[in-house]
Amino acid sequence: MSEILTYLGKDEEYEVYELFFGPNHPGMSGNFSYILTVDGHTIKKVSPDPGLLHRGFEKLVERRLWLQNIALIPRICVPEPDINEMVYSTAIEKLCHIDVPLRASYIRTIVLEMARLSAFLFGFGGIGGTTGLYTASYWSISDRDYLLDLFEWLTGARVYHMYILPGGVRRDLPNGWTEKLKETIDYLQKRLNEYDRLIYNNPLVIKRLKGLGKIEKELAIEYGITGPNLKATGVKYDIRKMVPYAAYDKIDFDIPSQNEGDGLARAIQRREEFQLSLDIIRKALKDIPDGPVRANMPNPLKFKVPKGEVYVKIESARGEHAYYIVSDGGDKPYRMAVRGGSYTAGLILAQKVLVGCRIEDVALWMATMDICPPDFDR
Q1: Between 3.40.50.1100, 2.170.150.70, 1.10.645.10, 1.10.8.100, what CATH number should domain 57-341 receive?
Q2: Residue 52 pLDDT greater than 80, yes or no
Q3: Would you say the C-alpha torsion 372, 137, 211, 188 has a positive or negative sign?
């Protein structure tokens, strides 16, 4: 069973039960659960129950050569794996003082925005599924496949790509690939109008999301909320603008934001950022220069990183995704810690915001917060 009641005893007036929500519940975003103390349908207490997904990535990378880890780290965030390749490669480049060719920086930007679109499509489906609009789930998974086709053509793999490497990218764009990407972007642009009619202009969705899990700007900052969830409260903080990486400093774009901080604002914010990703890809394809796609690198089996430490962050679909890496000058990382965008939202903020909500709001709150358990249960 996905929902199990545990009898806790009696208080002064009521019998008290714990409701086990997840990990098999269809509204749970992965192998993770909340233990809810409920009074009728109203939530009185939330206890996050992580650990079911833990795979020990932070310790595994310390047992592998620097470049061997490129095949391991994408699994830290399955819906948007390329962000791990980017932060890891950038950390090595900073420690080794490696200059990435400009063409490779543009290709990295395109790949990261494609991964972002793919993650947002999952989010569209999550909102649709938790409001009973299963058509949205079918559409979004189907549309995501067009992006996976392009990833497969570019990298040889549909989900875990191992394409962004220290010094640049693994190979240049194949012939005809950019034309197909432009066609896909144009297709997704048209589909966005359909998603608006199905989800974002739907009175049922608006009624369910309006006021759901409202987060004030000050609370979001206090709890370290980042990404679309922070921008939905009115804070225009985006690492692509504040601390540019890849080719983002060479592409002109504005960051959208909302003010209400509730479930509807978070959903609309992700819809607006989907449009932004489409625009960034178009501009990157228009301005991408010719040239090499990777700096000269030493033998991977002999590669060593100078002693030092670095913290690298990028803007993922869920917010700040970062690695803290320590090198002792050897052929393997000495220490690594991951900061996932869902960490504070899924583990800490849930214990505050979900109190007073109803049982049926839990899955929808997770969908609008776009919580991904691998971000914190790594």
Answers
A1: 1.10.645.10
A2: no
A3: positive
